[in-house]
What we know:
The chain has 2 domains: 22-109; 122-182. It has 6 helices and no strands. The protein has helices spanning 22-58, 60-95, 99-108, 111-122, 127-151, 159-182. Mean pLDDT is 77; it is low at 6-16 and 59-63.
Amino acid sequence: MRTPESFKKPEALVDIHSSEKPREIATKQDRVNLEKISSERKKLEHDARFEALELAQSTSEKNTLSTVHIEKEEIQVKHISKKESFKKTMADARFEMSESQRLISKVIHNEIVEKVSDMAAKTIFRPYPILFGGIFALIFSLSIYIIAKNIGFELSGFETIFGFLAGWSLGIIFDYIRILVLGKNR
Length: 186
């Protein structure tokens, strides 16, 4: 016969009547694990720096090489922790999304798509060319429409596209001249 002691649940199981949600418990456990890893990493970095400094003091050649090696390790650690934190943030955000939103998020935040998007934003999708293209397309299309209406010609539908491309070209020229004259930060 089973005693009440044998009905006890293991500590690893989650009580369904608990005020904490399973996701919150998993997140707390992840945070504890990340804190442990972070403290171990800091300790290892400190030990490595201390050893590197001791070796560096022996000769000036070793000093230069050790400093370069430490800087490379710091860059790698920062890069790895950025990737890990990005993945963690995306996982938390996607947990609250619907299935279709998760799919769109995975496509948009794909590394290749982000790099192509960033490159396009720095070159062809700059703000001034888009603004100039829109304004020029509106003015050009409106004026062509008024002229065509008075003369009696039919429009082909390409006028707005042509107006946008012409305005975009003027905008990109203006933007690059502005950058050459004023500098990149203005």
